[in-house]
């Protein structure tokens, strides 16, 4: 079991924070990096197979995106117990989250097998692309329970402030998938030539390796493995708020892409490229938020409410410093970076038209992500849900659709994103300063006991 990091001192040094954050970042980027490799391999099969992978991957990606409560929610609950010195109970939270992962994963597996054709017909537009996507997805979705088990495993391990083992487990799975993918896709050596289906099989095998390592870690803790419905119920209540919050993000970014596409190929291409850079920034800052979440939960579980404000300030300081560094890097590369991604001058011009909005938002995001992590560590998911929905409905979405109506172009869309960030910034700062989220101990950790707003 991970050694307690002593949050009672209020000492959130760079070494402490980044010691948790850097392995967490490795976990966050491992899957996107593998997906790029997978796409490069499948791309050798032709445009049809690559399009099928893209469409099928969109459906599977919703599993990990929509159900991240199995990770983030479990971290909050396990961290409180860890801070209280109840590490066996913290691991027991992981047991219940793992049972939830299995149950939800099996339901998803059956649902996708039953409805794959109509779902992919809508997303892929029918025809050959939908056919290719269905070939891939029917195999790949077998890994749904395994993906969710990995999310749950990440959750309880972060809660006990162990982010190194999850990195090892996830990387082990990625290495296996990476080794198998070209072998199965192209039929190297004695392996069958499976084409696109080989990519799906490689995915599932790698996911099986990672999930097995996480389950083995739970078994080694020798905690009771029985189902505890009250704990599951509390996890689902927390999960409800996080799912609604995630849905707001998805609606916003899907709307932004839809509107950008109405401004032409150059606009939507530029939007997607800058959005990928924003996603990279988000991954880096999210790793710091994960560290903040674990430290905050542990401090409150140890009944050290007097130090969490200090903790919040120091985490925010380090996160903002990291964000300023990222902003400076992107500002310095303004003359050259758009040209690295594309040689299309019209796309480069569109990118430069929103570049400084993108750069200006990064320091603001440093504060937002840090305090999101602190509040989530305190179990304040209901407030975060509400703040995100308000930001989406009053900020992001109106600007996105007004951009289309009034022909504001990409600048209008990205102003909407900036307003979204600013609304959330005001909300999380005000909430943090209020101190209403500070509830010490573990008796009131279940969100079902007290609906925060």
UniProtKB/TrEMBL annotation:
It comes from the Bacteria. Keywords: Cell membrane, Membrane, Transmembrane, Transmembrane helix, Transport. Pfam families: MatE (PF01554). It is found in: Cell membrane. One of its GO terms (cellular component) is plasma membrane. GO terms for molecular function: antiporter activity; xenobiotic transmembrane transporter activity. Its main location: membrane. It is a multi-pass membrane protein. The chain crosses the membrane at residues 17-37, 49-73, 94-116, 136-157, 169-188, 200-219, 242-265, 277-303, 315-334, 354-375, 382-402, 408-427. Belongs to the multi antimicrobial extrusion (MATE) (TC 2.A.66.1) family. NCBIfam families: matE. This is MATE family efflux transporter. It comes from Rhodococcoides trifolii.
